Amino acid sequence: MSTAGTAPPPHPTPAANALATITTVAARLAVRSGHRRRPAGPVDRSLPVEVRALRRPCPDVAVLDLVPAGSAPLPRWRPGAHVDVELPSGLLRQYSLCGDPADRSAYRIAVRAVPGGAGSAEVHALTAGTRLRLHGPRNAFPLATAPSYLFLAGGIGITPIAPMVRAAHAAGIPWRLVHTGRDLASMPLSDELAALAPGRVHRRPDDTAGVPTAADLLSGMDDGAAVHCCGPPPMIEAVRRAVPAGQRFHAERFSPPPIREGRPFTVRIVGGPDVAVPADRSALDAVRAVRPDVPYSCRQGFCGTCHVRLVAGTTQVDTATPDPAGPGRTALCVGRAAGDEVEVDLGR
Amino acid sequence: MTATDDDRIALQARDVRFDFSGLRTDWIPGEPLASHVIDVLHMLLPEGERWFVEVFSQALPLVRDAALAEDVRGFIGQEAVHAESHQGAQDHLIDAGIDVSGYVEQIEWIFSDLLGERGLTGAEAREWLVERVGLIAAVEHFTAVLGEWILHSPDLDAAGADAEMLDMLRWHGAEEVEHRSVAHDLYMHLDGRYLRRIRAMLIGGPALAKLWTDGTAVLCARDPRLRGTPQRRVRLRDYLRAARRGLVPGPGMFAKAVLTYLNPRFHPARYGDTDAAIAYLAVSPAARRAGGTA
Ligand code: FES
Ligand SMILES: [Fe+2]
Ligand SMILES: [Fe+2]
């Protein structure tokens, strides 16, 4: 049988020849199978919901109950999950689910108004009856079984932690919660959790207790406790470093940070077109607007799937950070032109 | 409290680094055969997982489900980092004087020629792409089973296996368990026919077994430290003995994996321990150094 389209094996052996034949047969069968393959139909998993109730446990925190617009129950989720909320303006924001996973008739989110934050301002202005579209839920902060738990929440970071606390409590697993924040009035949800087991909840406002160190937060925990931490990034980083090796440390995984202090530049694609990259976008995003099939994954420079050949020009992440793709290549997701333009070859 | 299919884990690659410069060729001390059985992964996976990345990147435009596309994207990044990590281990084997270049060349030929684009175009290229997605789904069932095994392998710790290598294998195993449904879901989305899925297993299973056996033989024969010793020749009974002692996955595990796959209602989410994967990623030194761990 001919093995068209392939080169001979570098080291001919009976097994290599057999494999060449088998894959040739497989390629033919694939083409035959294709005649009756039904191409994938579109799957729409977005969830139309309606704002049912909005309350304010703290002056700057809005808690929203979102109910399905249709009759189908909402998809199941587990503690730590989040949804992407499509706001009426088109903005997309990610919020942790903080209600009861067993309640499939509503999702609950809690949103703090951040000064200058367009998304949170829009959420705070929502009224009952407004229609929204959700995507997800997804879990970037899963809760796995452990002998015991130490939950650490900073401010609004309590949202994914609250259902974790309830789940641990319901499962009869020992747990402790430390909730920190500016002052008691700015620390939502943990008062309700304290009602479950007052002795297990430590609400620790900075205005009376001072800003805690990682060691303060971890003090008194048992060796087997799985630490689950959600809060401002510096708090997570400090706790990550302080949790002893061999002890479980869980935190939510972040999407890449927004681009700051970027300069606009032009990416010339071999074979055209030229693409303008604005100051606040990555070359990847700009290139994908014209070449949507360009592969990528991590968006942080390290996975290598978006690395392409650099034909002309030089790139860097910023003046202090070289392009992670190395010489002669560029990571489209983080690399930026050192000058005004670069030329890349997207061919494989 | 077990994460199952009703919990859709957000898949993201982790920026891990490993340093194998101090690694012994018998990184399970005194167990060169068991070490090399596992070392075969360092010869197969760099090319193999890069091929996964290539095939899945090409398949992405066919996906018409945004959530699945997101899974596939996460999968691609994880596999790309796996390939680089095993490449580091492979480079170390070569530095240690084990000449595996012939075997690796053959592997490159398999993935880039036999399983490459084969000069096909248009509809034929697309169907060959779907066929390869099916093959990857079958192979991913094995990687998930292996991941499950390495996450539950206390005998390796007891035998004093190298900590850096164990962390690499367990981080990889945990991500395999974490993303174990993606290739199957992609195949089901693009085609889903049972016979085609089984056909892929009938090709992938035996090919993998043969490559693994040959790879172990090459490593033992070329390991300069085994020159002049009887361990240079791999004997079935030595492998079975290592498997019984929990140092390598046993033949029963592979047989069971194939049988499971034959079930028409097979879905990877029903097999495997996501909790164990999550728990390991929370202690893995490499994942902790990488930050952003979940
Ligand atoms: S997307 Fe991972 S390196 Fe760019
Ligand atoms: Fe992998
Ligand atoms: Fe995998």
TrEMBL record, chain A:
TM ranges: none
Coiled-coil ranges (or none): none
Molecular function GO terms recorded: 2 iron, 2 sulfur cluster binding; metal ion binding; oxidoreductase activity
Keywords assigned: 2Fe-2S, Flavoprotein, Iron, Iron-sulfur, Metal-binding, Oxidoreductase
Gene3D superfamilies in alphabetical order: 3.10.20.30, Nucleotide-binding domain of ferredoxin-NADP reductase (FNR) module, Translation factors
Origin: domain of life: Bacteria
Name listed for the protein in its UniProt record: Ferredoxin-NADP reductase
Originating organism: Pseudonocardia ammonioxydans
UniProtKB/TrEMBL annotation, chain B:
Pfam families xrefs: Metal_hydrol
Superkingdom to which the source organism belongs: Bacteria
Protein name: Metal-dependent hydrolase
Organism: Pseudonocardia ammonioxydans
